[in-house]
Write a structure and sequence with these properties.
There is one protein chain. The protein is an all-alpha fold and about 290 residues long. It has one domain: Rhopdopsin 7-helix transmembrane proteins (Up-down Bundle). The protein is built from eight helices and no strands. Helix 1 packs antiparallel against helix 2 and helix 3 packs antiparallel against helix 6. It is globular. GO terms for molecular function: G protein-coupled receptor activity; oxysterol binding. It comes from Falco tinnunculus. InterPro entries: GP183-like, GPCR_Rhodpsn, GPCR_Rhodpsn_7TM.
Length: about 290
């Protein structure tokens, strides 16, 4: 039989550990968003300055400008998130909460689409006229702004009741069948596309390395393919962990009565926003 004093001590230790863990996770979350905000803002400003100086109108420039706009919209939502995580209270209303929550997901998937476009264009050496590129990029923006965003805002976070002082806690709805199917499909598509492109890109790089060895860095073709692999690395580092954990989160959400998994889900979501640091890599010459 365990003495009463031991039981009391164990309960006290357990209760003391949970707040400490929660506080550490909140600190990590704040640090990630501060890095995103500082690095992303610097990258957007510097890249915008370079594009203004070059005045280039190539296909890649049009896509990069779209990425700049995407990153800017996402960066504008970060101060709202930081305010919530620092103050531990949401002060901006339910619609702003839904909008800030939707922006990070729209940013993630639209950025992924543009990354895939860049990789495929370079892999297949496609050449588009400026008008064609502008048309399909404009179509992506129109669908996102006029279809996806209104649908997301009108349905996201509306079927359940939430505390007005809380935000980014739509965990109750993730257990619904349509949301489960949608999340599984998005995760499956992203993982499959990323896996296929990784294998193809690595095989192309290896073939070119053998072909041009030992002066591989002096060949434009090899450097272009190596730079394309940068976008795959960003996807693997920033997007893949979130979707792998998302599957685990959905499967175990109904068992998570104390919402212990929720902070981890938010941390992986914050990691997806780190793709906005890609502009600093552009400036450094890693990718352009």
């Amino acid at each position: 039989m365990i003495p009463n004093s031991s039981i009391t001590q164990q309960i006290y230790s357990s209760n003391e550990t949970l707040p400490d863990t929660s506080e550490r996770l909140r600190t990590i979350l704040i640090a990630l968003y501060l890095i995103n905000l500082a690095g992303g803002t610097l990258g957007v400003i510097m890249m915008s300055h370079q594009l203004f100086q070059r005045r280039s109108q190539s296909v890649m420039t049009i896509i990069i400008i779209s990425l700049l706009v995407l990153h800017t919209l996402m960066l504008l939502s970060i101060p709202f998130r930081l305010s919530y995580y620092i103050l531990q209270e949401w002060k901006f209303g339910r619609f702003t909460c839904k909008l800030a929550s939707a922006i990070i997901y729209l940013h993630m998937y639209t950025t992924f689409m543009f990354y895939v476009a860049i990789i495929i264009i370079r892999l297949l050496r496609l050449e588009f006229r400026k008008c064609y590129t502008t048309t399909w990029v404009g179509a992506v923006w129109l669908v996102g702004a006029l279809v996806v965003t209104p649908v997301l805002l009108s349905h996201y976070g509306t079927s359940k009741t939430y505390n007005p002082s809380e935000c980014f806690q739509f965990h109750k709805e993730i257990q619904e069948v349509p949301m489960v199917i949608t999340n599984y499909c998005l995760a499956g598509i992203l993982v499959a596309v990323c896996a296929v492109l990784t294998v193809i890109q690595l095989s192309v790089i290896c073939r070119l390395a053998v072909k041009y060895w030992p002066d591989i860095n002096s060949h434009v073709e090899f450097r272009a393919q190596a730079k394309s692999f940068f976008f795959i690395l960003v996807t693997l580092v920033c997007f893949m962990p979130h979707h792998v954990f998302r599957v685990y989160y959905i499967q175990n959400c109904h068992l998570d009565k104390d919402h212990k998994l929720l902070p981890y889900n938010e941390i992986f979501l914050a990691l997806t926003a780190m793709c906005c640091l890609d502009m600093l890599c552009f400036i450094a010459g890693i990718a352009h």
